[in-house]
Write a structure and sequence with these properties.
Elements: H1 4-8, E1 15-17, H2 26-34, E2 38-40, E3 70-74, H3 79-91, E4 96-98, H4 109-121, E5 127-132, H5 136-142, E6 150-152, H6 156-164, E7 170-174, H7 180-192, H8 199-213
Parallel strand pairs: 1-2, 3-4, 3-5, 5-7, 6-7
């Protein structure tokens, strides 16, 4: 476990090597960001064929995912922003699985939204991030997957609200609507914000119940 106090012991602007599988608290990540400390955690290698979504393992995998694993995917319109967000995730210590796509060649966003959402919905990833042109279509597709609560966010307020009130576990972004700097801030805020629980938990339970009611 890497906590706030451990991060504060390191000089500002340095790189802190974190062993794979270490649980990093949200406050530790925030302190690292404020002090410009890079949390160097080995990312899950992509190594996937061009324009092919990553294969989706099931719950019975003999190799459980590392803590705080983020599934990351995009269509051709979101590909450049996806590559930039990989740097953001690495700098803040979040391991990730790149589900594609791997170029700007035209592809269909539902394929990549499904690849990411399925990883989250089956418990093989902690959170998911999907980028397309507007973030809307991928959000619709991801929300078809059981146990997924996807939210399209475009600023700090929507990122916080989707986590505190709705316990969103998949974030969608529109590469044509938010620039790389804002997108990075949204991702950091969204990943670090805890679910508020309390009265919100009852409402989120009702959202999940609707999905189960129509499950086949």
């Amino acid at each position: 476990l890497l906590g706030e106090e451990q991060v504060r012991q390191w000089p500002a602007g340095t790189t802190l090597e974190v062993p794979a599988g270490t649980l990093i608290t949200p406050l530790a990540r925030q302190v690292a960001l404020e002090r410009r400390i890079t949390l160097l955690v080995q990312a899950v290698p992509a190594g996937l064929p061009q324009s092919t979504p990553a294969p989706v393992p099931g719950r019975d995998s003999t190799h459980p995912p590392p803590p705080n694993l983020v599934a990351l995917g995009a269509d051709h319109g979101g590909y450049p922003l996806k590559e930039q967000l990989k740097e953001t995730l690495t700098a803040t210590g979040y391991p990730f699985l790149d589900c594609g796509t791997h170029s700007t060649a035209a592809v269909d966003y539902p394929d990549y939204a499904y690849a990411v959402a399925r990883l989250v919905g089956t418990g093989r990833a902690w959170r998911g991030i999907i980028i397309d042109g507007a973030g809307i279509g991928s959000c619709m597709a991801a929300n078809k997957v059981p146990d997924v609560r996807a939210a399209m966010c475009y600023d700090h307020a929507t990122a916080v609200n989707s986590r505190e009130h709705n316990n969103a576990n998949v974030l969608t972004l529109g590469a044509g609507l938010v620039g790389p700097n804002l997108a990075g801030q949204i991702v950091i805020t969204w990943l670090a914000t805890e679910f508020g629980g309390g009265r919100h938990a009852r409402r989120v339970d009702k959202i999940d119940a609707i999905g189960r009611r129509f499950a086949r």
